[in-house]
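User: Okay, second chain of the day. Same drill as before: sequence in, C-alpha cells out.
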Amino acid sequence: MPTILLASKTTIPKISKQVIQRERLMAIFQQAQVKLIVVQAPAGYGKTTLISSWFHQLNTAVAWYTVDRTDNDPMRYWKFFMHAISHALPIESTARITAILHAQPQLPLAHLVDALLHELSRVTKKVHIMIDDYHHIHNVAIHQMMTRLIDFLPEHCCIYLASRSTVSLPIIRWRLNHCLVEIGVDQLLFTYEEIKDFYNRLNRKIDTKELQRVFDRTEGWAIGLQLENLAEFSDDGDEPLKESNSYMAQYIVKEILAKLDPSLRMFLLYTSLLEQLTPDTCNLLTNRRDAQQVLVELEKQGLFISRIEAQQQVYKYHNLFRQTLRQELHKQFSHQDISALYEKAAVSLYNNGHFLSAIELALSGEIFTYGEQWIYKHIVTFLSCGHATTYINWIDTLLTNGCEIHPELLVMYAYTLAVLHNLDEAYQIIMELEQKNKSNQWMEKAEYTSAVDDFLGVKAYIVVMKNGNLAQGAEYIRQRLERKPVGSKWDAIFIQYNQKEHMLFRTNIGSKGKLLSDEQAMSFFAKFRTGEFKDLSMTGYSYGMRAEKLYEWHRFEELSIELEGALRAGHQFQDAGLLVPMYMLKSKIAVFDGQYLVAQAVLDHAMEIVRERYWIDVIRVMKALVFLRENHIVQAEQELAKVNENEVMDSPFYALVKARILLMKDQPLEAQQLMIQVKLQAEQQGQLSTCIEAMVLLAICLAKQGKIEEALWTLHQALKLAEPYQYIRTFIDEPQTYALLKNYAAIRQQPSYKAWGEVSISYAKHLLECAQQHKQIPAFATLSTREQEIFLLLSEGASNKEIAEQLFLSEGTIRVYLSGIYSKLGVKNRAQAILLKPMS
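Assistant: Same drill. C-alpha cells below.
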C-alpha cells in the first residue's frame, strides 16, 4: 500500500507576527559552524517556533520534516525525509533519489543514505534540514542510518533535531569532535526582558511587580507564558482560570500525564509534594526501590525535571508542572491520605538531616506541630546561617493558621523583623508579648525563663534601633542582668547593626548623628564591655561609635584605644558594616596628621579584606576624598570613576565627595544643587550628621559665588543644629570653613546680628580656635623626621652652620633641606617658617 505523503509534515510551520525574535538564540544559529544542532526540551518550550522563525529568515534551501509515532517504520521515515528534502534539491537530484527509494527489489537503507549524501555533496548552496519531534523515533535501524547520514554530511549542510527527550544518537562523540551545537532548557527559557517584550508586542501594559510574578510563575516556559496570558484574559469571564481547570493544567494533564504509564504517573503525583527530589525520599514516598533510575529516565524524557545537584542526584520539577501534579493529587486522594504523605516525607527529610526542607514541607502540608517543634530546636542555626527572611515566612505561616507559638520563637521573630529594618512590626510583636503576659503571666513561668531573658535583650535592641533611645535600652539591659541569665540563644547570633552606612553615626544605634554625651553613652556601652556581653557584636559597635564621636569632638587622646577595640571586633565577626567605617576613620586620622600615603594604604588594606562590591565602592569614595584633601583632583576623579554609581546612588557620601570635586573645579553652582538634594534627603530621613555636613558645604558653595550673607546664614543654621551635640571636625575638616568662621565670629559682635543668638559665640570661637590649630598642624606634620629636626633647630634661632654641625651634615645639604621645608609649609623664607611653629 503506497504511503500518503502529508504536506503538513514537510511544511515549515507558520509563525505569528507577535512571536518574539530571540536575538540571543538566533545568534547561536548564525555563528554555528557545525553539521548538527540539537534542540532538546520538554513540551511547550518553543523548540518548533524557534527553528521555524530561524528558517523564515534564511534566503537559502531549507527542508522540514515533522515526525510522529507512525514514522518508526524505516521506509516510511526515509520516504518522508526524501520528500522533505526534495524542496531543497534540484529536480534531477530528487528524481534520482526517488528512483532508488522505489527500486524493486528494495535496496539496503545504507545504499539509500549514501545516495542521498552523494546528491547533497553536488549541491553548491547551503542546505538546512529540520527534523521535528525526533523523540518519537525508537527504531534502531533509523538511528543507525541517521548516524551514518550525520557522520558523512557535507560541510555546506546542517541538520536540526528537535526532541523532547534525549536522542538515541552518538551525541557524546559528536560533542567531543566539536561538530555539534546543543540548545537546552536553560537557553530556551524566556528571560525577564523577553517576557517584557512579549507583553509589549501584545500592546499590553503590565507593571514591574506583575511582570516579575509572571516570570517567577512560568520560570520562562514559553507555552506557560502564553497560557498565563490566556488564563488571565479569557473571554469566559472575569475570573482568571487559576485552579485545576486552568489552561496550563489542562495542557499538562492532556498532553503529558494522560500519555504516561500509570505507575510513572503515580510516581509523579506522590513526589510532587517535594521541592527537591532525591532517590531516597522518592523511594520512601512511593514504596519503590528504583527511584534513582526513574529520576534519570524522567530527565532523559524531558518531563519538566532538572538536576540541581549533579553529584548527589538532586532534582526539581518545573513550578507549573509541580503545581498541576499537586492539583491532580488532591483530586485523586483524600485530605487524610495526603497529610499522611506529607508527614511521612517531612519526617524522613528531618531524620536524614535535611532540617530546612523538612520544615518547609511540614508547613506546606499543614503539619504545624512538627514544623513549630523543629523551628524551635534549630532556630539559632537557621538565623546564624542567614535564613532571616525564611524564618519570618515560617512564623507568618504559623500565625496565619492560628497556631500557638512558643514565646521564644515570637521574641526571635521580633528580633529578626528588627534586623531586617521592619522596626514598627517588631515593636508591635513586643507589645503583643507584653499584652499576652498580662493575660496568662507567661513571663512568670519557669519554662520560659530563657525566653524572658531574650525578650529583654531584644526589646532593648528594638528600642535603640527604632528611637535611638540608649537610656531606655540600658534600663532593659540592667533588668536582664539583674535576672542573672545563664545564657541566651540571642547571644549566639551575630547581629550586623550597620548594613550600608559609611559612618556609624548614620545608623539607628548611632542615633543618626544625635551625639549623646560621653557620660550618657558610656552608661549604656559599659554594660556591654563587661560580663556576659563583652564578646557580643554590639560591644564592637560601642567602641566604634565612641571612636567616631571622639574624632568629631576633636579628642584624640583616647581615640586609638576605641578604634582598635572596634577593629578587633570587626575582624572577629568579619563585619564589613563595622570594619569599613573604622578603616575610613583611621584614614581620616592619617589625613589629619598629613600622612596621605598612610591614609591611602589603610584604605587599600580595607579593600583587600572586604568582599562585598558595595563596601568596596564606599572605600573608593573615601580614597577619592583623601586625594581631595591632598589637592589631587585628577586622582580623586579617577578613583570616583571606578565606583558603580548604581551601588552607591542612595548613599549621600558619594554625593558629598562629588560636590567637593565640583567646588575644586570652580563649579559652585552645580555643587550647590547637589548639596540641596542631599540636605533635603537627610532632613526627610532625620540624618542630622549628614544634614550638618551638607549645610557646611552649601555655605562654601554660596561663598564661592560671592553670596557672603547667604553663606553665613547657612553656616549659622548648620551651627544651630550642631551645637547641642558639640560637632567640631565636620566644620574644620573643610579648609574653606576657616575664613567663613572668622567672618561669622566677626559679624556676631555687631548689634544687627543679635537675633543670631541661638548659637553661642563661645561655640563659634571654639571652632575657630580648633580650625586655626588644624590649619597649622597638618602642614608641619608633612615634614619628614629629619626635616622636623631641622625645623625645630631653625625655630630656636640656630643658623645653617649650627644646624649642620649638630646634625653632622654639610651646610649645602641643610640649604637643600630648607628649600623643601619652605615648599611644604608654603612659605618663602626663614622668618615666615618660624611663625608657623606649632604650639607645644
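Confidence is low (pLDDT under 50) at residues 233-245.

User: Thanks, on to the next one.
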